[in-house]
Amino acid sequence: MIKANTFVMIEKIVLPKEFRSSHLPDATKAVDVKAYIKGFLREDANMNQPVTIITSLGHQESGTLIEVHPSYSHSFGEYIEEMAHIGPSLFDILKEGEEE
Asked: With CB atoms 3.0 to 4.6 Å apart as the test, which of 8, 9, 28, 36 could cross-link to 70 if both were Cys?
């Protein structure tokens, strides 16, 4: 049981696939448009159950509880060998331009 006022993330279906445009690619129109929203639980709840949260801006949102204490993470992807040499190469090119 997750206690009220715990920081959580919910999943909310914004647009069901049945209402998506027919002009979209098949793979795109076959899935719902979802929003992932973070906020504080209004009442005690269990995972994967419908809940209501209050966001940090005070908005009330409802959806399915999917994560407790969600973290913020971001990545620019896997390491790319070629990208490691761009900075030094660009620096050399710019340095040559200053000498002319």
From this structure: 9
CATH topology of domain 1-71: SH3 type barrels. (2.30.30)
Tokens of 72: 């913020």
How far is the CA of 18 from the CAs of 9, 31, 36, in angstroms? Answer: 25, 9, 20
Which amino acid appears at position 70 of this protein? P
Classified as helix, coil or strand, 10 is: strand
Per-residue model confidence as pLDDT tens digits over 2-30? 999 999 999 999 999 999 999 999 999 99
Q: In the Cβ-directed half-sphere of 60, how many Cα atoms lie within 13 Å?
A: 4
Residue pLDDT, tens place only, 45-63: 999 999 999 999 999 999 9
